[in-house]
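Entry 14. Two folds queued back to back today. First construct below, sequence then structure tokens.
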Amino acid sequence: MKLTNLLVKSNFSEYSEAFAIDVLTGLSAQNKSIPAKYFYDDIGSELFQKISQHPDYYLTKTEFSIIEKAALHIPKMTHSSEIDIIELGAGDGHKSKLLIDGFLNNGCKVNFYPIDISEKAMQLLGENLSINTNLAIHGIVADYFTGLNYLKKISNNKKLVLFLGSNIGNFNHQQSGDFLKKLWLSLNQSDHLLIGYDLKKEAHTLNKAYNDSDGLTKAFNMNLLNRLNQELGGHFDPAKFEHYGFYNPTIEAMESHLISLEKQDIVIDSLEKSFHFEAFEPVHLESSYKFTVAEINNLAAHNSFKVVQHFSDVNGFFIDSLWQVQKDLAVA
């Protein structure tokens, strides 16, 4: 697999600075928080792959079954002899492989471009993809939009962007719209987007999925404290925090928090600042919003995408929605 690392030293410094600023802002607020995007360093990416394979986590196996069937139809809907398949976030490759094979089996040449800030995640992905003369794999180590803009410069092929899992749910409604608008700007007329949406369902199923019996989700969240220690010179003791995940029906989202187990003051050296935590004070890490079909349709329409088809499972737990870019129907 060819690999292009766009996180050159200057960009990496900018990324580290953004991390520091977000931590400073989030931990200085009355209601403390750290953005969920910082879960995914190399260790976090590896832990998430383990979570995604856990029996308690319904999302991955459900989406796999959806894509297994969708892969028979999507290649015929895009009408391409050669296509760039771009995956935002390097998963383990099992779901993207289904789609890649679907195109290859239809006689289409595929250029696969996974984009991720974790080079290790990219390497793990490459190990799971088979060699084929009609398949070229080119990993891009970058943030999503740096990677997309790079690809727009080097290729004029039709594009199918994959934003799988429930990643869109990590944005609130305003952020979802902003993300989709930026994505629309990064693509050309008639390009396609396959995007995963976790649907609203009963709370027990959700709570079980986000509190797995082997503690992988706990380790995933706690790893953020280790990252603060290693990258920003923090002095967090993970034993003095606990993971707490629950479904909040008021905002229709799963929430993840770290709870301080005692009153404590924690210094972060690079910020030259001490942060005070009261006993049982939460730090918000993530809200994973759940959707209805009507909400998915509205998101597409308001951001100048046309819904081509919704692909769902027999339980109605999840939707992978195929959208097409509509530049001629742009909404102001």
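Second construct, same run, same settings:
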Amino acid sequence: MATGTTSSVLARSQVEKGSVITRLLLVLVTAGLALVVTGGPAAAHAGGLTATDARGSVVSVTPAVPGLEITAIEEGARLRLRNGTGGPITIKSGGGTATPAVIAPGAELTWIDERSTPDGRSVAAGRRVSWTVPLDANGVAVAVDGVLVGEERPLAAGWWIAAALTGAALVLLAKRLPRADLLLAAAGTIAAASSIVHVTGSTLAVESAPLAGTFLSAAGINLLAWPLILGGAVTALRGRAAGVLAVCAGAALTAVFVLPDVTSFHRPVLPFEGPAVLERVLVVLALGLGAGVAVAGAGVLRDLARKAAADSAGPDGDIARHPPAADPA
């Protein structure tokens, strides 16, 4: 009777652990979502860059000034001016908080100018929007003329459907496989790899800041999520529920943190060093698989807890015990 009672208590304890794990996952997701919301979408992109409707470029500098170089970088998000003249160059006011500004001879400046940046503008595909930034080159009025060229927007609904189907397929598959823990470990690893490539590509698109600092800033909470997933996957391969928990927690954070980057589903020009379609696929995998692992993980962890309770009980419901040691002769 006592052993049966002990078995029931153990079973309840294992199931309760599954409930605790589920609540822990919810806490992690909520915390990650709070970080994203308070940080704002722009902060989640490398270098503060965002997806836009158009690419910007400098067309002409009138009159030409020997030694004055000005170019549009990061798809037109910023302007970079190098002053190789013998006098100061003044950027006239009207371009936002960065202007007016004075660049001494031999110096350079990279800034966001509201007159030229495509960020925050709606530019239809094929449309050309001209812009002008006025300068003063040691007393000579100079006009920097450029253009924004709109590009065709992607079919956003298709990418959202792809992300939803990816997550849903993973959840359904996890319910059918006998070793769903291994499935979650593999899916979580793919989500982490997708996130790493996504952050790396976004970092390489930034020309106005050091790569190392930009990568760390863009990675954000993924610096915690990636080790959780990869370390958890190794532990899960050894059949330990703690590994599955780590994978689920890391995958949930990865999915939450990539949410601001779903703007890539809606805008054609992306802050990513590589094909735009690759960036969208990476976001689909990080979001879809990350969310799918987090959702499926609660059920898989409960199943593992029940299995552990069943394995610890004997065929008659008693706790499995080691056979008594033989008496010494």
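Quick look at the second one. The CA atoms of residues 319 and 325 lie 18 Å apart. Residues 54-150 form a domain with the Immunoglobulin-like fold (CATH 2.60.40).
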